[in-house]
Amino acid sequence: MNEAPNPDVCPYCGGKVELVDSSEIYGRSYGLMYLCKPCEAYVGVHKGTDKALGTLANKELRDARKQAHYHFDVIAKTSLINEIWGKYIPGLSNRNKAYLWLSMQLGVEPDECHIALFDIDTCKKVVEISKKAYKK
Ligand SMILES: [Zn+2]
C-alpha cells in the first residue's frame, strides 16, 4: 500500500540521509528512522524493517501531516465514511474506503494516497476536505 522509497537524499538540503536509531531524536528507542541532522527532517520505518513510512519531513511538514491525520481520522477511524459516501464496496473496510474516497477527492492514485507521502499543500487540502465532509 505504501510505496515510499527509502530516502537517501534530503529533500530540503540535498544532503545525505542517515539511518539511525530513534533514540537520537526521542532519547528513547522506538526503532530505526531516516534522519537529516542539519534539517531535523526525519521519517520512521515500518516496524522491524528499514522501510520508510513516508517521505522525509521537517517540523513544518510533520505538523501539517499531524493536522491532516487529526481531521481525516474523524472519517477514517469511524463509520462516518458510509454517510459521506453511500456506495457499498464489498470487501473494503471503512478505513480503506475512507482512503479511497480521499484519493478521489484529491485526484491522486489510491496507492499514493497516504498522508506520510503528502506535502504541505496536500495536507492542507486534506484538512479542508475532511472538515467539509464531517461537518455536513
Ligand atoms: Zn537536510
- Estimate what percentage of residues fall within beta strands: 5-15%
Principal-axes shape call? elongated
| Helix-strand category | mainly alpha
Largest sheet: 3 strands, antiparallel
Q: How would you spell out the order of helices and strands?
A: EHEEHHHH
Which molecules are bound besides the chains?
zinc ion
Radius of gyration, taken over Cα atoms and rounded to an integer in Å: 16 Å
Helix tally equals: 5
> What is the helix content?
25-40%
Instruction: Report the uncertain regions.
Output: none
Instruction: Walk across the major sheet and give the strand order.
Output: 1-2-3
Q: How far apart are the termini?
A: 30 Å
The number of distinct structural domains comes to: 2
- Overall pLDDT confidence: 94
Any overview of this molecule?
Helix 2 (59-76) packs parallel to helix 5. With 136 residues, the chain is mainly α. It is elongated, with a radius of gyration of 16 Å. It is built from five helices and three strands. The mean pLDDT is 94. The protein has two domains: 1-57, no CATH class; 59-134, no CATH class. Strands 1-2-3 form a three-stranded antiparallel beta sheet. Bound molecules: zinc ion (ZN). Zinc ion is lined by residues 10, 12-13, 15, 36, 38-39, 41.
